[in-house]
From TrEMBL:
Its cofactor is Fe cation. GO terms for molecular function: 2 iron, 2 sulfur cluster binding; dioxygenase activity; iron ion binding. This is Aromatic ring-hydroxylating dioxygenase subunit alpha. It comes from the Bacteria. Residues 46-155 form the Rieske domain. Keywords: 2Fe-2S, Dioxygenase, Iron, Iron-sulfur, Metal-binding, Oxidoreductase. InterPro entries: Rieske_2Fe-2S, Rieske_2Fe-2S_sf, Ring_hydroxy_dOase_asu_C_dom, Rng_hydr_dOase-A. Coiled coil: none annotated. Gene3D superfamilies: Naphthalene 1,2-dioxygenase Alpha Subunit, Chain A, domain 1, Rieske [2Fe-2S] iron-sulphur domain.
């Protein structure tokens, strides 16, 4: 296989037209745009709030701070999960100040009002001092939509939004083979960043930056065009299939020795890499075969339900507007940016990694943050980007460009993006956003 060039490849079944709206800088920098998003975008989408693993017993709760909003998700007596705005109906104090916990009574820190897990007020000071009578049993926390998929809990502020599984289409079906239900969130890290949330969304909507920002991936992921397949769905989500366990065809890795780390991966699956000298591209098929034969015996029970493609490739699912799920056979990465409460030039970046529970395994090797114990939140922290705290080595590389891109976008000299074909998903993302925030075209 020689060096390949060519045009980007879009799935004929899942392609969408774009209009060519100019992607101007104001959407990354202006307070007005940010207000438009707070008003018209965020209240209508499903937000990933946490994982069901933290909600086992009645009264277990998790909190998700999103921009100016805060939501708590609480396990109920009947096993369901309900979500409430994290605000006290007495005089608006934020109720829960920690990330997670368990309590039979959610108690407000101001005047001590207490709520049961179903959000009903059950205890107040001076119950006879209310003109309407004792409010217990009558006053409730304000509830939001809350639904689950696999190991994940989602919430939505819009009572009229489509159900979660419909919003997630086509991913519940396309990801079913991985068996995500019982995967364990081992990494849960986040960072305050100095750029607009859309900067990293754009980054996840293209693979054009791989050779420049992530050059070390070249020996393991074939990001060559037209090898990579892009899919764009009508509902605004999109996906990218990248051929894995194969070096890129952008450069000539295919006529000599099998490059690292592919050689080690081959050896780990009982394949002698020297047999693939000069035909590195064929190794992928050999690894599929070896995984089929050896995987279940090594504890990878989910391999039996996975397609050949899922056994070796990378499936990047980008959900409109701000959630990315990157699947590889043994890792599910959640990558997300969320807006700052007030500053359009800031955001919060979140990175979770989930791993399948492999029988007998106590450790997961080779995560983006090194070898870690295979247990819930083995590595969890919040940091400020730039303080030298890693959020995963590939993510660090992506974030490294965010601040300088934000600075460049502030320039009067920037007049709008100039995109390649393979960046069409960025174009579509911004056109969808224009329609939501600015209204149907013509805009302005
Ligand atoms: S604001 Fe919560 S009890 Fe007063
Ligand atoms: Fe990247």
């Amino acid at each position: 296989m020689n060096v390949q060039t060519g045009a980007a490849r879009y799935s004929p079944d899942f392609d969408q037209p774009v209009r060519g709206d100019t992607i101007t800088a104001d959407r990354y920098t202006s307070a007005e745009w940010m207000e438009g998003e707070y008003d018209k975008l965020w209240p209508h989408i499903w937000h990933l709030g946490g994982v069901t693993a933290e909600l086992e017993e009645e009264g277990d709760f998790i909190r998700h701070n999103f921009g100016r909003e805060s939501v708590i998700m609480v396990k109920q007596e009947d096993g369901s999960i309900r979500a409430f705005y994290n605000t006290c109906p007495h005089r608006g104090n934020r109720l829960v100040l920690g990330d997670a916990g368990s309590t039979p009574r959610i108690t407000c820190g101001y005047h001590g009002w207490q709520f049961d897990p179903a959000g009903t007020l059950v205890n107040v000071q001076d119950p006879d001092d209310f003109p309407e009578g004792n409010p217990c049993g009558k006053v409730k926390l304000t509830e939001l939509r809350c639904e689950t998929w696999g190991p994940f809990v989602f919430w939505n502020m819009d009572p009229h939004a489509a159900p979660l599984l419909e919003w997630l289409k086509p991913f519940p079906e396309r990801l079913a083979g991985y068996g995500l239900e019982n995967w364990v969130r081992v990494i849960n890290v986040s960072a305050d960043c100095e750029f607009n949330w859309k900067i990293i969304r754009d980054n996840f909507n293209e693979s054009y930056h791989l050779p420049t920002i992530h050059p070390e991936l070249a020996t393991f992921i074939n990001d060559g065009l037209p090898t990579t397949l892009f899919e764009m769905y009508e509902n605004g989500h999109n996906a990218m299939w990248m051929v894995g366990h194969q070096a890129t065809t952008r450069q000539d890795f295919h006529t000599g020795e099998v490059p690292a780390p592919l050689d080690d991966v081959a050896s780990a699956w009982g394949i002698d890499p020297s047999e693939y000298k000069g035909r590195t591209g064929d190794l992928r098929e050999a690894i599929i075969k070896a995984k089929r034969e050896l995987g279940p015996g090594r504890g990878y029970k989910n391999y039996d339900d996975m397609t050949d493609q899922q056994l070796v490739d990378y499936f990047h699912c980008t959900l409109f507007p701000n959630l990315t799920i990157t699947m590889s056979p043994e890792q599910c990465q959640i990558l997300r940016t969320e807006p700052h409460p007030t500053d359009p030039a800031k955001c919060v970046f979140q990175h979770w990694c989930l791993y399948p529970p492999v029988e007998g395994a106590k450790e997961v090797k080779g995560t983006p943050m090194g070898d870690l114990p295979l247990r819930h939140d083995a590595l969890a922290h919040h940091s400020v980007y730039g303080d030298g705290v890693s959020v995963g080595y590939v993510a660090d590389q992506d974030l490294s460009i965010g601040t300088s891109q934000q600075l460049g976008l502030n320039s009067r000299g920037f007049t709008g993006c100039f995109l390649t074909r393979q960046e069409k998903r960025i174009q579509r993302f911004h056109e969808l956003l224009n329609d939501v925030v600015l209204g149907p075209p013509p805009h302005g």
